[in-house]
Design brief:
alpha+beta; eight-stranded mixed β-sheet; 16 strands
Length: 430
Amino acid sequence: MKRTYIKDVVPGICRVSGFVENFRNKRTMAFIVVKDITGKLQITVEKEKHPEMLEMLDSLTIHSVVTFEGEVVASEYVKMGGKEMYPTFMRVDSVADALPIKDDSDIDVRMDYRWVDLRRDKNHLMLRMQTTLSAAMREFLTERNFVEIHTPKLIGAASESGSDVFEVKYFDTNAYLAQSPQFYKQMAMASGLERIFETGPVFRAEKSYTNKHATEFTGFDLEFSYIDSFEDVMKMEEELLTYALAKVKDKHGDEIVALFGEEYEVKVPTLPFPRMKLADVYRELEERYGYTVPAELHGDLTTEAERMTKQLARDMFDHEFLFITDYDAKERAFYHMRDENGVPQGYDLIWRGVEITTGAQREHRYDVLKAQAEEKGLANDVKFYLDFFKYGCPPHGGFGIGIDRLTMLFLGLSIKEVQFLFRGPNRLTP
């Protein structure tokens, strides 16, 4: 008999497999709660009828892996879906030792035994929700003629800034782990692909120990051609996120509230998202909340100001998202297009007080791009990249979103808890 997922179990004969979540071994009866990725089912063993199961039941431990076959019946006394199985066949596939962690164990201890920690209901939901989120974004883009590409993560020159990259030995030379697919996304524009996206690993050699930074994470990046301004890029992103959040809410909204609480109810945002210039953000933060920063820091968004935009967006716009534009050129990458006043044509998108995206219209004119790279002292390092623009390239723009950071904000968790396996300055295992 083929295995049936627990969510698909109906009254009748079937076979289920999973982990033992709960076990009560009484004198005449045994009650086992079996859990798989889709749900839980109570197994009720009548010992008198099945003496061949007694030895197996005595060996059973919590989190052992088992397989049962038998008749599933409806029962008004069983809270889990109103069904239970009376098995005629039992097999213990794997006996579990006493667990090394508990739900309330320290986060770093849980990370040491991540494969056990991931068995929790919240983590199963988190990864299923992440799957729905990524699939929805893919669906949105493919329906709009985007092509998925996969760019190399071993590169010959440090991308973007030359800092915060991991250097690795590459035969008789050195290579770097890509901190962004940015250069290759733009190469795709010069290739005439027009609309591309990619999901893949991103590496950052930052010794940062906050709850939102990791040295390796999953990025969702896109780039598209023939735009008129960075407003087109913002419009694409707000529509993409609204579509994806609606999909997550529809599929997982009730379960998220049940496991994480009502404060994490998925709210599908209204369009368009509010937009503010950075100078206006600082003015409002000062007037409303008395927050001031030194003039020399006004060209970029401080960490504290970023956090406070959660309240600002709510108070001014009754919204969870906020686009912030008009940063100082020295705070933006050299490949951002600038207007006649030297203002970068890009933005940050803040969600719930955390930056989730930096996006922009890119500079596609070779001479201007070369001059901006020279201004940053990068012309020699990015010569291969500048060559992409020598032979014609359409106006284009794009952005990147961290899948892990989005998940973190959905569920109120730390970055360590939303990655399958976290990588940080002090963690390379498991």
